[in-house]
């Protein structure tokens, strides 16, 4: 059976709502998942974009189950990651499903789409009111993307995401659930900043207090990843700007860099 996602009046939404509910139920059986695996993921986005808001959780639930042992997911992971980012903070299963997508598809990146970066900024700005897992997953995906995409790094700056991440680092983000989650959030935030600091012109615009910020995290006893990521950001700042290098010398930060990198 083929269900059209084209709106044909009031009958379209009930059909898609029923489809989402049925898929959620069918996905509980491993034999059904194996048969429908490829077909499900090929149609996932089309259905997600048209299904009534109240049925999105059913569809995400089906996605969570279909992701278990899925072979087809690796071919569509990049296509659905951005849409899941947009749903983070509004639907509880969006972040867990995005995590599963990233586990199955190590090369999953955020598409170079300004709307998705605007969604990321919204998530970061709502960090005190959304689940830590949503924030952690979004920043992890951003770190992956900025590692490979110069355009992504430009948009992180343009849409004030870099500014928001440094604010998060400055506030000593305290998670509501786990110190492990907090460390992962801070570590990936520092990593994104380090990726952006590959742009020397951006580094030269930074004030000396930015050196103090990353030096604080490079010295911290929070875990090796946050220390190393902060140190890498520091090194790029110092290489690009003589005033920032001088600030690093004044604060005895060079010794910290040598011990962390």
3D structure, described in words:
The protein is mainly α and 261 residues long. Helix content is 70%, strand content 0%. The chain has 15 helices and no strands. The chain has helices spanning 12-26, 30-48, 56-66, 77-87, 94-104, 114-125, 132-148, 150-158, 161-170, 179-196, 200-204, 208-219, 224-240, 242-250, 253-260. Helix 3 (56-66) packs parallel to helix 5 (94-104). The longest helix is centred in the N-terminal third of the chain and has 19 residues, at 30-48. The chain is elongated and about 65 Å long. It starts with 11 loop residues before the first helix and ends with a helix. Residues 1-12 have low confidence and may be disordered.
The secondary-structure element order is: HHHHHHHHHHHHHHH
Sheet with the most strands?
none
Give the proportion of residues in helices.
over 70%
Structural class category:
mainly alpha
The N- and C-terminal alpha carbons lie at a distance of: 57 Å
The fraction of residues in strands falls at under 5%
Question: What is the oligomeric state here?
Answer: single chain
Question: Mean of the pLDDT scores?
Answer: 82
How does the overall form come out from the CA principal axes? elongated
Overall radius of gyration? 21 Å
Residue windows where pLDDT falls under 50 for at least 5 positions: 1-12
Number of strands: 0
Q: Helix count, per DSSP?
A: 15
């Amino acid at each position: 059976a083929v269900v059209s996602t084209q709106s044909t009046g009031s009958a379209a939404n009930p059909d898609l709502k029923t489809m989402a509910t049925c898929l959620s139920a069918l996905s509980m059986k491993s034999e059904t998942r194996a048969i429908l695996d490829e077909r499900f993921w090929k149609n996932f986005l089309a259905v997600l974009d048209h299904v009534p808001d109240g049925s999105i959780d059913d569809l995400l639930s089906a996605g969570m189950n279909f992701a278990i042992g899925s072979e087809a997911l690796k071919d569509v992971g990049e296509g659905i990651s951005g849409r899941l980012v947009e749903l983070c903070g509004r639907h509880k299963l969006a972040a867990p499903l995005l995590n599963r997508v990233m586990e199955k598809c190590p090369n999953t990146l955020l598409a170079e789409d300004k709307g998705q970066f605007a969604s990321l900024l919204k998530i970061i700005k709502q960090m005190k009111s959304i689940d830590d897992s949503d924030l952690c997953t979004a920043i992890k995906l951003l770190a992956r993307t900025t590692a490979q995409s110069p355009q992504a790094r430009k948009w992180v700056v343009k849409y004030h995401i870099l500014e928001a991440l440094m604010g998060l680092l400055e506030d000593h983000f305290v998670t509501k659930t786990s110190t492990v989650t907090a460390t992962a959030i801070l570590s990936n935030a520092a990593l994104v900043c380090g990726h952006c600091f590959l742009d020397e012109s951006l580094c030269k615009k930074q004030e000396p207090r930015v050196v103090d910020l990353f030096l604080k995290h490079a010295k911290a006893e929070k875990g090796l990843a946050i220390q190393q990521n902060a140190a890498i950001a520091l090194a790029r700042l110092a290489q690009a700007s003589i005033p920032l290098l001088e600030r690093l010398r004044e604060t005895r930060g060079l010794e910290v860099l040598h011990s962390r990198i």
